[in-house]
Predict the 3D structure of the following.
Amino acid sequence: MHRTANTLLLGLFLVAPFAHAVEPYRPRKTGHPFPIYTNNPPGNMLENDPVRRGAKEPALHPEETRKLIHVPPGFEVRLFASEPEVVNPVGMTWDERGRLWVVELYEYPKGAPKGAKGRDRIKILEDTDADGKADKVTVFADGFSLATGIALGHGGVYLGAAPDLLFLEDTDGDDKADKTTKLLTGFGMEDRHELLNGFAWGPDGWLYMTHGVFTHSKVRGAHDPDGFGVQMDAALARFHPRTKKFEVFADGTSNPWGVDWNERGDAFVSACVIQHLFHLAPGGLYNRQGGTWANPYGYVGDLPTKGLPAIVDWRHYRAAHAGICIYQGDQYPPEWRGLVMLGNIHQNALNCDRLTPVGATYKAEKESKLLGPDKGIGAVGAGNFLVSKDPWFRPISVQTGPDGALWVADWSDKYPCYQNAQADPLGVDREMGRIWRVVWTGDQPGKKIPSRLDAKMDFKKASDEQLAKLLAHPNNWQRRQAQRLLGERAAAVNKPTSLTELWAAHATGQAMEPALDQAAAATAPWHRAWAARLTGEVSEERSGALPRLAALARDEDPSVRAAAAVALRKFSSGSFTVGTVPAVHVGTATLLPHFRELLARPSGPGDTYYPHIVWMAMEPRAAQDPQPFLKLFAETDTSVSAYCLYRTMRRICDLTDAAERERHLNAAMEFLGAIADKIQLVGAALDGLIKAQEAKGARPTAPFASILAKLITNPALADKARRLAALLGDSSAARTLLAKINDPKASVDDRLKGIQSAREAKSDAARGELVKLLGTEKNQTLLVETVRALGGFPGDDIAYTMTDAWKHFSAGTRRDAAEVLVTRVKWARALLAGVEKKLVAPQDISATARRALAQSTDSTVVDQADRFLGRYRATGGDKLKLIAEKRSLIFAAAPDLKNGHEVAKKSCFVCHKLYTDGADVGPDLTGVGRSTLDALLHNVIDPNEVIGNGNEATEVELKDGTVLTGRVVEDAPTRLKLLAAGPTEHVIAKSDIAVKDGKPKIRTLHSSLMPEGLEQMPDKDFRDLIWFLLNPPQDNRPWTPALRKELLGDETAGLPKKPTK
């Protein structure tokens, strides 16, 4: 069921509530040196809207909450600050004195009214008496609206307050900002829980930030408001404090909230809705919750994972993560170093994962060596480092502090969900907020652990030599502070040998050649990798740069070679992720030997980043002239060569200059003939050309039949070569494929290939074979594909042929047939005529098709649909009544979960995934949309209640009158790709799109891809479906009283004792 995943502020729905017999708690409101803002009424609930209910329990006093937080033996949770000293903390950082700086997001979610002064502010929290608690609070600056990110450095404070990145300075040393400079503007504000966030200084000296998928930014300099800017949505981006350059570091994920680096300097982010943990390497184009990558020429959508994958293929509880820390402090025992800590807002917990290198990337698993076996979501155990039984606990930032312990910013609100805030902005609690410390006491409970080294500490007063010594400190907080300060001072780091020293030296801007040469020869591969990375960061053709990269491109370790590819990308493009002019021009001939070394060595199993970044390094040059690269592929003949050759073939077909495209495509076909004995390469090249033709790519003009005929003689290549030949218009190959369609002796797989070929050929012969199969075939797999294929052919008679064959169709085939027939007016009329003649039953018309009929531009179709099928759209009041009725229905009889699974396959899983089942069209139900019975009923019955940007349906009208609807998953210069239920891909040449008033007829519908009307299925099926989705076997959660209360609320009358298997 489709509930858009923009239901996250910093999380989505609620975990099981816990009752506490305490008096309602509210913080004191007087006697403070700063304004105390309150709600009226505080935490107002939408009692008439059970979907958005938050924690029903009242807020707890911080001490009561602390008692309900569980951590492993030897650890203790301690409160550093709470309301009203800190309220709605959304970001935190420290200065050189160990003082905590916090951004308070009071104006979430709407922002300050136009013309009004915002109430978001920055506070400094200080522990002056070393008792581990803040006792001094200073408001550094206020008056902001939607401030979500903070970092300190270079003499001021970087503050993210969309649409701007601001720099605040205290010029007179009174801890009050008195100068504000706008550095960047253009950050999007569409989705208020996905604004720029997670500010952190990277090891390279850049300021990094994360950004969500449903907010669309066009970032540009403050003095260039009309500039093209850097386009960005789901991404990890960075800003250089000196050059003021802004760029996307890696593109993809969902709503990442926070970034951290391990001791090797690799970046990791936490994410929501989709998988929760990503290693984001430079230039990576990663799996996305929605939308498309800014660079269409990475072709990562062709990967099985639809983008580079996360480093997990499993989940913690639900899917709302915020905050990430890779622990590198010195306060915990050493065995805890390197573990990943992530805030989980659904679970009111900190999850814990362990990283393992895999080639040039990583894999992660639940930490269990230290935490022990899994004991469920409410207990410390595998994957759970901290679990709170206070449902108001909302961890959103997790960092290592100056004491070497974990610090946790707790949003602290009854509402966990962006939908809550949008529907009831006054109900967002604006009086609560906590900062917790998780300290190690071992066998000394209650041991005093100061919050910073010394109340008088001030690294800013340290000498360069003292700071250089701190680069070796066992707590990464000290190392990072020292590195930042040295960089700001441009202080030389003598003979850097450690990674931290190398990073610090780079940040100072000092000459790096000897240090980089030394690092390139280091024993540790991560040192060698950073020698390559920093060579690329300098991006200058110094005497040693390219020879150094040549040696590193031959390295045996794939992470080092990947870093060399990243560096070479800097010489071929000015950006990691999109094509821009590089800072220094280096001829392609100079770079080719480096590319050859990268191609010559394969990547390890499970590592898709390495071949991807090799392709990204060479793509800008291959687009200029692919011929020398084809030669390299033939010479190396590795899996990496095959990966890049596939994409080179696609890139050739996507060249925008027609003459160049024709020349290079003809040469590519000749190249196929020249490497006919290299099966791996030829197969990859054929796959790339086939995909390009499916994507409406250009065709070669030189004779190619003899080349493909030669390849067809090789059994390992015959199918692909014949398929390509048919796509390119070879009548002989097409006839061979079409002959399989109605050949009863052919395998189902061969017949499907024939149907696919017919779909692409769109010839009269192809049409005839498909129509013939429709009237005689009983195999539903073949019928479904035939129905879909006929949707691309002209002819009014096709519709009547389908309705005549209707009696042979299964329920699934009928659904697809109805959805095909509603794409054209005359076909829709024929479908409705079939309903009138009782050839087609009303229940055969899927909810998707019914919506299309209701939205038809033909009044006859709309009227007949209402007459034969009933009124389409219920009013808001009708829906609430219907939800109440269906809720009662759910409890009317015992459910059959096995049948519920079968119903889900036919309805939900044509668009949604649930664990391993289903299609990746709408949001993944594993983590969203089914947190409670009420949420699920609202999502099913009223899918248009809340729709996220990027999840709306897009309608495209073609010149032949066909209207196609789906979610845009690719928008390239020459084509548009829609993904619809099934899943069905519609690849549309932009030249085929109808035009009105000079503009293509493409419109974004204000409706979800998920249609209304699913509640019209038989009562038993509806009941079984809902019970299955609420708690499928894969959730592995027994029906305990606590789970019943969580999922069903208080209305459990009639609940079966135990659902049937």
In short: DSSP finds 31 helices and 37 strands in the chain. The domain at 50-440 is CATH 2.120.10.30 (Neuraminidase). The longest strand covers residues 349-358.
